[in-house]
C-alpha cells in the first residue's frame, strides 16, 4: 500500500502537469499546486488526530484488560480450594480478557505504526509546501523584475525617441538665440569701432590742418 506522501505526490504531479498543459500563467499553476498540497496536509492532520485518539483509547482499554486479567487470576486462586465453580468462572473471564488484550495489543501496534507514517508524510508535505512557496516567491520576483525591465526598456525607448526630438529642437532654438546675440554683440562692437575710427580720423585731420597752418606762416 502506498503511503499518503506517495499518493499525494503522484496526485499533485498529475494535476500539476494537467494545469501546465492548459495554463500559461505559471504563478497561478504553482499556487494551485500549493493549495492542493496544503489540502492534502490538512486532511492528513485530521486523519492523524483520529488515529492518535483511537490509539489513546486502545491503550486505555489495554490497561483495563491487563488489570482485569490480573484480578480474575487472583480471584481464581482465592476461590480455587473453597468454591471451584467460581474459580473456574474467574479463569474463563481471565482468558477472555487475555484474548482481547492480545488482540488490542496488535491493533495498537498497527495504529502506532500508522501514526508514525502519517506524521512522516505530513512532515514531508510541509517541507514540500515550504519548498514550493520559496521557489514560487523567488521565480515570481524574477518574473516581475524581467517584466519590469522589458516595460522599462520599451518606455525608455519611446521616451528617448521623444527626448531626442526635444533635444534637437532645444539645440536649434539655442543656436538661433546665439546667432541673434552674436549679431547684436557685433553691431554694438562695430559702433564702438566706427566711433573710435572717426575720432582717430578727426585727430589726424586736426594734425594736418595744424601742420598746414604752420607752414603758411
**Net shape:** rod-shaped
Overall pLDDT score:
80
At the first level of CATH, the class is Mainly Alpha
Q: How much of the residues is beta strand, in percent?
A: under 5%
Helix and strand run: HHH
Cα radius of gyration in angstroms: 52 Å
Task: Figure out the total of helices.
Answer: 3
Question: What is the strand and helix layout of this fold?
Answer:
Elements: H1 4-22, H2 26-79, H3 84-216
Helix pairs in contact: 1-2, 2-3
Structural account:
- The protein has a single domain, classed as Helix Hairpins (Orthogonal Bundle).
- It has helices at 4-22, 26-79, 84-216.
- α2 packs antiparallel against α3 (84-216).
- With 217 residues, it is an all-alpha fold.
- The chain is rod-shaped and about 190 Å long.
- The longest helix has 133 residues, at 84-216.
- The protein contains 3 helices and no strands.
Keywords:
217 residues; mainly alpha; Helix Hairpins; 3 helices; 95% helix; rod-shaped; PspA/IM30 family protein; coiled coil; PspA_VIPP1
Summarize the structure.
The chain has 217 residues and is an all-alpha fold.
Amino acid at each position: 500500500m502506498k503511503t499518503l506522501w506517495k499518493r499525494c505526490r503522484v496526485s499533485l504531479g498529475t494535476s500539476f502537469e494537467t494545469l501546465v498543459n492548459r495554463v500559461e500563467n505559471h504563478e497561478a499553476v504553482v499556487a494551485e499546486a500549493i493549495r492542493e498540497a496544503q489540502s492534502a496536509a490538512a486532511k492528513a492532520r485530521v486523519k492523524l488526530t483520529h488515529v492518535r485518539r483511537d490509539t489513546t483509547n486502545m491503550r486505555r482499554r489495554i490497561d483495563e484488560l491487563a488489570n482485569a486479567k490480573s484480578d480474575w487470576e487472583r480471584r481464581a486462586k482465592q476461590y480455587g480450594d473453597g468454591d471451584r465453580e467460581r474459580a473456574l468462572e474467574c479463569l474463563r473471564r481471565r482468558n477472555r480478557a487475555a484474548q482481547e488484550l492480545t488482540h488490542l495489543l496488535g491493533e495498537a501496534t498497527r495504529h502506532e505504526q500508522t501514526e508514525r507514517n502519517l506524521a512522516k508524510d505530513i512532515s514531508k508535505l510541509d517541507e514540500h509546501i515550504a519548498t514550493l512557496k520559496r521557489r514560487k516567491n523567488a521565480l515570481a520576483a524574477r518574473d516581475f523584475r524581467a517584466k519590469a525591465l522589458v516595460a522599462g526598456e520599451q518606455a525608455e525607448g519611446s521616451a528617448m525617441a521623444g527626448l531626442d526630438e526635444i533635444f534637437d529642437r532645444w539645440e536649434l532654438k539655442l543656436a538661433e538665440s546665439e546667432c541673434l546675440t552674436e549679431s547684436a554683440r557685433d553691431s554694438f562692437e562695430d559702433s564702438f569701432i566706427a566711433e573710435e575710427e572717426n575720432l582717430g580720423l578727426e585727430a589726424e585731420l586736426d594734425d594736418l590742418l595744424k601742420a598746414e597752418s604752420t607752414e603758411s606762416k
